Each structure stands twice: as structure tokens, then as C-alpha cells.
Amino acid sequence: MTSAAALWCLSLLVGQVVSSPLNQQQRPFLPSISSTDQIADTTVQNNNEVILDLLRRYAPVFKLSELEAFFPSSIEYMFPHYNFTESPSGEIRPTNHSIITRSHLDELPSNGGGLYLSINESHNPQPFLDEESEYLFGPYGLNDTMPDDRRGRVEEEVYGFGVDQGNGVIDLWYWTFYPFNFGKPVGPFGILGNHVADWEHLRMRTINGTPISADYTTHTGGRFSAGTYRWQDIEKIDGRPVAYVAAGSHGVGKLFKLVDITDDEGPLWDTKDHVVPAIYWDNSQNRRKLFHHGDLSWLNYRGKWGNKGENDCWWHRIVGYCQVVDAPWGPNRNFGLPPECILAPLTTKFSTYRFKFASNVLDWAKNHNIELVKIEQICVRPKTNPDDPDDPDDPDDPDDPEDPDGLDAELYDDDMEGMVEIQNVKSIIGFRGTEKHTVTMDSCKGRRFAVRAYKLSLCLLNGRCISTSNERKICTYEQQKRGHSFGSAVDLNDIDDWRWDY
Ligand SMILES: *[C@@H]1O[C@H](CO)[C@@H](O)[C@H](O)[C@H]1NC(C)=O
Ligand SMILES: *[C@@H]1O[C@H](CO)[C@@H](O)[C@H](O)[C@H]1NC(C)=O
Ligand SMILES: *[C@@H]1O[C@H](CO)[C@@H](O)[C@H](O)[C@H]1NC(C)=O
Ligand SMILES: *[C@@H]1O[C@H](CO)[C@@H](O)[C@H](O)[C@H]1NC(C)=O
Question: From the CA of 136, how far away is ligand 2's center (Å)?
């Protein structure tokens, strides 16, 4: 995003229009421009090679469920089946199949913006697919010469995106494609949420080439199977991450089931030597998304990867969707985001937060006479019922564990949103421009309150804060323990510069 656009976003956030145009003299925080284009080019080139290598090196292993029926495929597998495109207004056009290819997909009008690449076959299994549509099971699903004696193997490609975040941080995103997403049974309504084409991802973060964490995105299982995990906490094969894929919806989780790590011996999808790697943006400073050429041109396609959903069912007004829903967008977007949550070890007594601002925020702050930064530590605890005799928060309950380890971690689950009490601990420090800010503040107060997120505000000398960030979720852990733990104070070192405009 250009800095003018960024400023516009920022001004929207604070509800006022930036009045005077930027004075170049007043922008001390801008990074210095590199000396010659020639040098910059080779540096970028080398850096990109490093990123592409990382993408190949950490090719994940997906463990599919034994219950899976809808298997992954390459994008190419689906191309011949897209027989028409539909616009949001319902205009239908047959596709020219010499355009529906990896290297020409972006030649659709407006790079396909607003279009739905659509199949002509029925795609609403309730619960079974029509015979004409069975290609939606994917190549593996159609293969009837499967081994009985050993675990099946899926050999499809995975689409890797490398994102240089600066300071040695490279994020690796691995996107998987499936011809079809099988929805979930919802009582009398049948199976809801079916859609043509499914894109799901697993993401990893590396620092100077060493993996430090991975993000899982399964749609079920809450904080136990989704979120950001330390590299040491996750299952690996050959030094590469393993993810469990939920049957039907294909969300990738760390754990297949909530409690025990269960491997149900479904097919293995090892993506080693099957990564199609791409670079996401030009560099960590400019953050301008690349335009791709040749076999990667399909990444410029801006439309949806399957049919438009239905909205004519009678329960649409109640549940918000029908049996068939809109197909998803493609993968090539939003990779600038920080991980799902910031990993931070728990401490006792005090919390420490270290963070930096990105140059666009610094520019804005400079123009608005920002002198102070307010840090809010967001603490939550499960809402409890005072009349409940089993209430674990009852101070008179002798069985109530004092140790935060004894807390029922599930109670802090995101799915419980609205059922937690929130209380913030605040601190104000001086604004230090480009420097890393460090603040030490009180731990969460009150029994069972645990750190869940933090946010920042930019404030004037008189203490009035004129712009506030979103919350950044925090996943806390104990050094000597696997997985996440909950507690009232953290030692957080945020490596993603704060910018308001992701
Ligand atoms: C869709 O297009 C492919 C390739 O042109 C063709 O083989 C197939 O018959 C078409 N299907 C329908 C239903 O039009
Ligand atoms: C299909 O696209 C190709 C390549 O752009 C073009 O040469 C051809 O004329 C198109 N065919 C039709 C029927 O529009
Ligand atoms: C879909 O297929 C049917 C039967 O083959 C055909 O009559 C119809 O025109 C096709 N529709 C589209 C949009 O291609
Ligand atoms: C079907 O599975 C067998 C055994 O795993 C494999 O050798 C063969 O290549 C597969 N065929 C296709 C078309 O995927």
C-alpha cells in the first residue's frame, strides 16, 4: 500500500481526515534508499532464491482422515471442468478453454475479478454425489486400485508462498487445493456448506532459515487444534511439519482430535518435491504484491474458484446460508498478516511487552504530534455463575486449584467468546519513534484472569489517545511444558512491526 493510502486508512480509523499533505522534510522515519538499483536487484534475487529454497525444504506432510472422501488435486485437474463463468449479477458466459490454464487464467476480464469459475455438473451431495460429478472426489478418490495392505499415498502439489517480513523473518504459507468441500449435517436442513473448490493453508514462520512456529487453521477444535504453536511442539517428519486434515472441510489442525493425538491411518500426503513455490511481495519495506508471469500467472486471477452459492432456501434468513455456498477466493492475498497469535512465555508478577512500529505508523504519529503510547494487556476469565454450587471460582471451594495449571484451559477457548469476562491492564509510556518500545506492567489482576491479547493506542501529550490498533492475540506457554498454558503475566517480544493497515 502506498503511504498516501495508508494515511487515508489511518485517518479513517481515527475518524478524521489528514489535513495537510505530507512534507518530505518531516519524515525522519523513512528507511534510506538503497544505493543503486543494480545492487538492490541482485540482493533481492538472492533473497528470493533463499525464500524459494525454504519453501521446498519445509514441504509439509498432511495426514488425511480415513473418513475423507473429497481428496486434493492440482488446480490443473479442475481446469477442464470449469465450463462457464458467472458474474455477481448472474451473467453466464461459456469459458474459452485456451484461457483456463495456469499461464492464461489472469486473461479473464479484469483478471477474473468478481467472476465465479463454474462447473456445469451438480454439486450438492445430500449426502451422495451424482455420478457425473464424481471427479470432485479428486484423483486419489477416483483411483480404484488402492492398496489394501498399506496406507494410501496422495501425490498432489501444494502451493507455497514465501513472505519476507524483514529482520530475517520469512513466513512460509502452504496452500492446498481440493475440487470440493463437503459441508456439515445440520439437523433438518441436510448438509450445509458444500462448495466447489476448497483452499486451505498451513503457515510457518522461520527466522534466519530456522523454523520457530507454525499456525494451524482447523475450523473445529478451538484453541487446541488451531492457533500458533512453537516449532518444538509440533509433530514433524524428516524435519518438516505434519498437519492433520479434517475430513470434508479440510481445515488443517495440529491434533486430529481434541485430547489425544490420533492418527487414524488415513492416506498420507507428503508434499516433498511437490511444492510449487512463489514469492509474495517485492520486499519487506515496500510490501507490494508481485505480478506473476508464465506458469504462475494464475496467481493474478482475482475471482472465485468455483460456483456461486445458493440463497433461495427457506432457512437462508435463519442460518444465513443454504446447502451450497459461494466458492472461495484463491490463495494469493493477505500474506502480510502476523501469525494468528504472538507466542510468549509466561512469567510471574510482571508482564513485559517489547514492540516496534512500522514506518507508516511512524509517519502518521509524527504528523499528529504523538507523544505517548498506551499499552493494554487484555485479560480474560470464564464467566461464572454465582449460584452454581460447582462453580470453580467459588473462593470457599476447597478443591479449587490455586495453581493456574489446574485451570480448565478449554474455558478460555475462542468459541466461548461472549462467555468470558474481560479486564484490561493499562500502561502509558513515552513514544520513542523508530526504537523498540519496552514496557513493564502489572500482571492480570483477579483470580483466574489470563493474558489473551494486547493492543496499542497512540496518544497526545495530554493523554488523549487518537488512534487504537486491533488486538493481537497472545498464545502463552511455559518454557518447560509442551503446548499452550494460561497465566496472568507474559514476557512478550513482538517481531511483527505494528501497522494499522493490514
Ligand atoms: C465442459 O468442457 C469440457 C472441455 O471443453 C468438455 O469436455 C465437457 O463436455 C464440457 N461439459 C459440459 C457439461 O458442457
Ligand atoms: C480463445 O482464446 C484464444 C487465446 O486468447 C483466442 O485466440 C481464441 O480466439 C479464443 N476463442 C474464442 C472462441 O473466443
Ligand atoms: C450444462 O449442461 C447441460 C447438459 O449438458 C446443457 O444443456 C447446459 O447448457 C449446460 N450449461 C452450461 C452453462 O454450460
Ligand atoms: C492409483 O494407486 C496406485 C497404488 O497406489 C498407484 O500406483 C497409481 O499410480 C494410482 N493411479 C492414479 C491414476 O493415481
Answer: 27
